[in-house]
Specification:
The structure holds 2 protein chains of 2 kinds.
Chain A (H helix, E strand, L loop, with lengths): L5 H19 L15 E2 L1 H4 L1 E8 L2 H21 L5 E6 L2 E5 L2 H12 L8 E2 L4 E2 L1 E5 L4 E5 L1 H26 L5 E5 L3 E7 L5 H7 L5 E5 L10 E6 L5 E5 L4 E2 L3 E9 L4 E8 L1 H13 L5 E5 L2 E4 L11 E8 L1 H13 L6 E9 L1 H30 L1 H23 L3 E2 L1 H31 L3 H33 L2 H35 L8
Parallel strand pairs in A: 1-21, 12-18
Antiparallel strand pairs in A: 2-10, 2-20, 3-4, 4-8, 5-6, 7-8, 9-10, 11-14, 11-17, 12-13, 15-16, 16-19, 17-18
Helix pairs in contact in A: 1-10, 5-6, 9-10, 9-11, 10-11, 10-13, 11-12, 11-13, 12-13
Chain B lengths: L7 H22 L2 E2 L1 H4 L1 E8 L6 H9 L6 E6 L1 E9 L8 H13 L3 E9 L1 H29 L2 H24 L3 E2 L1 H31 L5 H11 L1 H21 L5 H28 L4 H10 L1
Parallel strand pairs in B: 1-6
Antiparallel strand pairs in B: 2-4, 2-5, 3-4
Classes of the chains: A alpha+beta, B alpha+beta.
Chain lengths: 517, 296
């Protein structure tokens, strides 16, 4: 155990120096093209906001089912099958068909090439399930159908979230999917997430619809509140144009009456429809509805054929800017709810870094002094090894661009405390060996060999705990698992290569000087 | 040589009592779950005005209809920690509070940290915390089973249970807050306690093979003594590191490092007085380890 070939010594030295170099790249700025990796600071250390959003898919499912009833009715009409009593109840569609057609309808739904019910060969499942309840036929989304629906609304939502966050212009936002109905947004350096939160909390579903007095409008009507909550108006369900028809939206100052407005331009389809509606509807009120609330309902005075218009509604410059931003980035497929928020101000982050560094230095110092007092020369070896170990640990974290969190710093400090364990096990074993053995080399060799199983077992148990923590933990706690886990490997390396090398050099030189430890 | 084995019975009674008291505390007093596991809102506030103090803050917050509000000093004199349930999970609660506080205190305060955990998330976090701890205990059990004989596995796992339950018992007794970092601490305690037990067990097994004529009662004592200086040194350095975190690592790490300190102390104790006594009570002998060697 004490023999090292020249090659090995060179290898260990180069390896250690490399990691010391990598670790120190965090402190000094190297030429970026040479090495540009750095340890990332977690949100708890650099300050920032962590938002977990959940997509409320209920309305999407409702809407899909609503559309489906029309599709089903039309589809079977072409096949001369009458669909009766079609209704939606608790995410199920119920309808009746005559008994002779029942089997045919079920077969159409269960056919793998069904036109009305897509089949996913990969999951061996249809989008919809059909069931004969005896009273009527029941249709609902299959498990896989629901998953597909959720995934697709998540895909759309994450795109919109990304656009909105990018428009606010925070630095390096991190936007990730979580499961199939959640989106994680990390915003480093943002200490007041109020604006982002209010932007993400809006679906931004914009429609232009006529205000109507006629209660029996062909498309149906609904009573909507104005945004300020003071008034109500009855609005047709017929949509003239919607947010999808917008090409651009910008906040502007109306020079005539000094009001802040949002001006918009429409795409070709939108412009045509808008032109037609404004030409036939002169004198009528056109309501601009956002997320079920009326922003304003101006009276149409002229035909607007240019495809450009403006929305006024007592905006401040900020609210006009936000509305324009929301309209530019598009509507979310479903409402988002912020189900978890963690925000740390930058000064608290800095305080945490400082406290962590002070604790690390003091912990390190205490351990070093303790080891030197206890073991003298071998304590010195342990301490030098410990310092190199710390550099290698930081080096590995840098290499993988790991995220360092406050609990992560605690993990490093803990590693310092526990790293000496392996060396202590070895030294104590050597002491025991020296009780019966006068040959220093044999005693040291025996100490290393006999302590090995205990050291490996002991480290694997800690490693197992760290691995579980890594997979089960979240955010800052994950950072702790990383430093603790990586710390075990760097500790074993430094104990078995670096400390052993020093020990070996010292022992072979002083093998005849009596008991060495 | 210290006669640890003289007190095996005494300390077994003590450990049993500690476990029972802790369990009773956990059942009847329960744990003080933080917002991570209970849901709710937390605000860390720093003031630069002496007008802002615990009672004036409590006054202002209780006027806002937020349900149960707790206001505490946090570390220094001008840092405060405010927690409330946010039962209705109101959306713009933070903004509303800011507007309200601005009226009374102007700009003389600052939100340094805001955490808001919805009921769904907190339930999930609690579940995954419980799973993580159970999983770690199960994996340790299996690992020791593979590496040692079942008697050792039982001893180690009993020691682990003791450490986890008594640490949580202390948290219950003093109503210390359980949050995500405490779960991390408990898992690390599991790892550390195991580590400590394994080192002694490794020596017990080695000695079992070496001496056929020494009874396990005596043999565990020899093994404990042979590994004693290592046990002391490692516990000492780990505790030094943890004390550094406790005293200098800032308020946020206080609970975490306290749990770890307790865990290290209990872990060291249980390796000696629980893990080993299980071996004694199960009458482990040379045959136990030799049989295993043959089958391997």
């Amino acid at each position: 155990m004490l023999y090292f070939s020249k090659l090995r010594i060179v290898f260990i030295t180069i390896f250690s120096l490399l990691f010391v170099l990598i670790a120190s790249s965090n402190l000094f700025k190297f030429d970026d093209s040479f090495f540009d990796k750095k340890i990332n600071l977690g949100l708890d250390l650099q300050g920032g906001s962590y938002l977990l959003l959940e997509i409320d898919n209920e309305p999407v499912i409702e809407q899909k089912l609503q559309n489906l009833t029309t599709t089903i009715r039309n589809f079977f009409k072409d096949k001369d099958i009458r669909i009766n009593n079609i209704k939606i109840d608790k995410q199920n569609i119920f309808f009746n068909v005559s008994d002779e057609n029942k089997q045919q309808v079920i077969e159409i739904f269960e056919d793998e090439n069904s036109e009305i019910n897509p089949y996913y060969p990969r999951f061996k499942s249809h989008q919809l399930e059909i069931e004969d309840t005896g009273l009527n036929l029941k249709i609902n989304f299959s498990r896989q159908g629901l998953i597909n629906l959720k995934t697709s609304s998540q895909d759309q939502a994450i795109e919109i979230v990304r656009r909105r966050v990018d428009e606010v212009g925070t630095n390096e936002p991190n936007i990730l999917k979580r499961g199939n109905s959640r989106i994680l947004v990390e915003l480093p350096g943002l200490d007041d997430p109020m604006r982002v939160k209010s932007l993400l909390g809006k679906t931004a579903n914009l429609t232009f619809r006529f205000v109507t007095q006629n209660e029996d409008d062909r498309f149906g009507v609904e009573k909507l509140e104005f945004e300020d909550g003071t008034q109500e108006a009855v609005v047709s369900k017929r949509i003239i144009i919607s947010g999808e028809n917008l090409l651009d939206a910008q906040p502007k100052m109306d020079t005539q009456n000094n009001q802040t407005i949002v001006s918009f331009t429409l795409d070709r389809v939108g412009a045509k429809r808008f032109g037609k509606a404004t030409s036939t509807g002169i004198g009528k009120q056109l309501a601009i509805v956002l997320d079920g609330k009326i922003i304003s309902a101006p009276v149409v005075r002229d035909t607007i054929a240019s495809g450009a218009g403006q929305i006024s509604g007592g905006f401040t410059f900020q609210s006009a800017t936000d509305l324009a931003l929301l309209l530019r980035s598009g509507a979310l497929p479903a409402p988002l709810e912020i189900i978890e928020e963690r925000t740390v101000g930058p000064d608290l982050g800095q305080d945490s870094i400082n406290a962590g560094m002070i604790a690390l230095s003091i912990g390190f110092l205490l351990v070093i002094i303790f080891m030197f007092v206890k073991y003298r020369f071998f304590g010195l070896i342990t301490n030098v090894t410990l310092i190199i170990n710390l550099f290698i640990l930081l080096g590995v974290l840098t290499l993988f661009e790991a995220t360092l969190t406050l609990p992560g710093i605690a993990g490093i400090i803990l590693t310092v405390g526990m790293a000496v364990d392996a060396n202590v096990l070895i030294f104590e074993r050597i002491k025991e060996e020296l009780k019966d053995e006068t040959n220093n080399i044999l005693a040291f060799d025996g100490g290393y060999t006999k302590s090995r199983t205990a050291i490996i077992d002991a480290n694997i148990t800690t490693l197992l705990a760290a691995v579980i923590l890594f997979f089960m933990g979240s955010g800052p706690v994950k950072g702790f698992a990383v430093t603790l886990g990586v710390g075990i490997f760097t500790t074993l390396f430094s104990v078995y290569f670096i400390a052993r090398l020093f020990t070996s050099l010292y022992v072979t030189k002083n093998k005849n000087s009596g008991k060495l430890i | 040589m210290i006669a640890f084995n003289k007190y095996y019975n005494h300390f077994n009674v003590l450990s049993g009592a500690l476990i029972i008291i802790s369990l009773l505390l956990l059942i009847f007093k329960g744990l003080n779950f933080g917002i991570d596991f209970k849901g709710g809102t937390l605000i860390e506030l720093r003031s630069n005005d002496t007008k802002i103090n615990v009672s004036s803050l409590r006054d202002k917050f209780s006027q806002m209809n937020l349900g149960d509000v707790s206001v505490k000093k946090f570390g220094s004199d001008n840092d405060f920690l405010i927690k409330f349930e946010n039962k209705d999970n109101k959306k713009n609660i933070i903004e509303e509070i800011k507007v309200n506080l601005d009226k009374s205190f102007g700009n003389s305060y600052d939100f340094r940290r805001v955490e808001n955990v919805g009921p769904k998330v907190s339930a999930e976090l609690l579940k995954s915390g419980v799973i993580a701890i159970s999983l770690s205990l199960a994996i340790m059990l299996i690992y020791i089973w593979v590496r040692f004989e079942w008697q050792f596995s039982l001893g180690a796992i009993l020691a682990l249970f003791h450490d986890v339950i008594v640490t949580l018992g202390v948290f219950s007794l003093f109503s210390l807050e359980i949050n995500l970092s405490i779960i991390a601490a408990v898992l690390t305690i599991v790892g550390y306690s195991m580590n400590d037990t394994v080192v002694i067990f490794d020596r017990v097994r080695e000695n079992l093979r070496k001496y056929s004529d020494i009874k396990i009662f005596e043999l565990t004592n020899i093994s404990i003594n042979e590994t004693l200086s290592r046990t002391i040194i490692t516990s000492a350095t780990t505790l030094l590191a943890l004390l550094a975190i406790y005293f200098f690592g800032g308020e946020i790490l206080k609970g975490f490092s306290l749990a770890m300190i307790l865990g290290v102390v209990f872990g060291t104790y249980s390796s000696i007085y629980i893990a080993n006594t299980v071996l004694v009570r199960l009458r482990v002998s040379q045959k136990t380890v030799l049989r295993e060697d043959d089958s391997k």
